[in-house]
Amino acid sequence: MKKIWYYFIPMTFFAMVWCVLSETFSIWHVITGYILSFLTILFTNKFLLQKNYIITYHLPVSVILRYVLFLIYQIYKSGISSLIKIVRGHDHAYIYTYQTVLTNELCIGLLANAITSTPGTVTIDKQGQTIRILSLGALDHKSVESFEKILGGKR
Taking phi first (over 0 means left), then psi (-120 to 50 degrees means alpha), and beta for anything else, what does residue 137 get? Predict the structure, then answer.
């Protein structure tokens, strides 16, 4: 029973993601989300991680909220920018190599996913701290650096 309370915050997050992705918010669906979340965390701890789940994937709630809000802002900003580039015919693709200052694998993964989530950019490779990005036009380095700053990187 103590383990359930230990994993309550990640279970809540995963259950909410489960409900959003399945587009259902009934009480039974939320309970199912909690059960699946708990089983997933146990499986991950037992077979996939070398350290404890909470230690490996620890990010403060404030960082997660700032990351999500900035990601939503960047998705809209980049979407409008990409649309303008396409309409004007400036839709040339370029590949950039970006060296991140982040050292935490979770944060580097979140950065790579944020790059892919914004329209006009796709992460095509990640090796250590090096990320290769396919971009529609010039890469907005300021946005990538802002994501790094949110995730704890210092430039």
Answer: left
Q: Mean pLDDT, the chain, as a whole number?
A: 87
Beta-carbon contacts of residue 77 (< 8 Å; ≥ 6 apart): none
Token pair of 50, please? 């070398």
Residue 92 per-residue DSSP state: -
Closest to 10 in 3D by CA, of 50, 103, 45: 45
> Tens digits of per-residue pLDDT, 95-125?
999 999 998 888 899 999 999 989 999 999 9
CA distance 8 to 87: 47
Retrieve residue 95's tokens.
């590949």
For tokens 């399945």, the residue is 22
Q: What is the pLDDT of residue 47?
A: 84
Longest dimension (CA), the chain: 60
